[in-house]
C-alpha cells in the first residue's frame, strides 16, 4: 500500500477562520486552545489543483463562518467548479443580505448549531447567542428560500452537541427542526471534553438511551432525518420505529407542509414508489446482483475504526496545515510550503494509512468518538 499513489480526496474541510463571536461552554475556545486568525486567500489558492477531483467542500472550523470576509469569494469559486459546498454556523449572523446571497449562489448545505430547544438552556450553553434571534434568522433564511421556491440549496439541518446537561432536549429539537423546515433534520454529535467536566455521555449510554429512543421515534413519525445516534454511543440499543398507516400518512403531510417546492417533492415520491415496485417485481440473478461477494469465515481479525478519512478526506486548517482529520492535531505538511499532491502522497501519510488498517492504530483514532469499531481480516 505504501508505494501506491492515493487518488485525490473526494471531500475537503477548509477552515476559514478561528474567530468566533460566542463562547459556548463545550467549545475548545473556552480554554484558550485556539488563537484567532483568518485563512489567507493565497492559502486557498494553493488548493485549486484539488477542486476538479473533489465532490464536496466544507467551509468551517473552530470559528464562526460568517465572520470571514472572504467567505463569499470562496463560495463563488467553488460553485464555479459545480462542487457541493457545506457550511456550519451558529446562526447569529444570518442577516437579510447573507441569506439572499446564500440562496443566490446556491450553497448546498447549511447546518445551524443548536444545543437546546429551551431558550434559557440554549442561552446558557451558547454564551453570547440569543435563542429567539437565532430562530428568527432561520425563519429569514427560509423566507429567502420560499421566495426562490426551493427546498434545496441550501438544505438545512440542526447540529446538536449531546451532553449530560442537555440530552433531554433532543426530542424537543426534533420538533423544532420540523417547525423550522429543516429538510436534513438533526445531526447528533457526542461531546469531546475540553475541560467541561462530567458532560461526556460516551461512557453513559444508559443516561442517553431514553431520550435518543424518544427522539428517534418522533423523528420517524415527523419525517425529520435524525443522524449520528451511533457515534460515540457504542452498545446503545435503539428501538425500531414501527409506524402505523396513520403515522405514514402523517409523515407525508409533514413533508408537504414544510416544502416550498411541492411539485418536485411529489415527483421524487412518485419516483421512489416506482423504484420500489420495479425492484419488487424484478428478481436479478446472481450475475446481475451487485456486490455479491462470497462470505469468508475469519478466525482472527484486527479491530479498527470504520473510517475512510485518510483516503477520502482532507482537512486544511486556517494556517494551511494539513491534518488527517478535523479532530486530530497530527500535521502532515503545510500547503504554503509544499505542493498539496506531495503532502497527500508523502511517506508520513502512507504510513498513517497503513496503521489505520493494522493492530497498531494511531492513538487519536483509538479514542475517537466519531467512528465505530469494526473487525477486518
Automatic annotation (TrEMBL):
This is Oxidoreductase. InterPro entries: 4Fe4S-binding_SPASM_dom (IPR023885), AdoMet-like_SPASM_containing (IPR034391), Aldolase_TIM (IPR013785), Elp3/MiaA/NifB-like_rSAM (IPR006638), Radical_SAM_PqqE_MftC-like (IPR050377), rSAM (IPR007197), rSAM_sf (IPR058240). It comes from Candidatus Moduliflexus flocculans. Residues 6-229 form the Radical SAM core domain. Its cofactor is [4Fe-4S] cluster. GO terms for molecular function: catalytic activity; iron-sulfur cluster binding; metal ion binding. SUPFAM superfamilies: Radical SAM enzymes. The keyword Metal-binding applies.
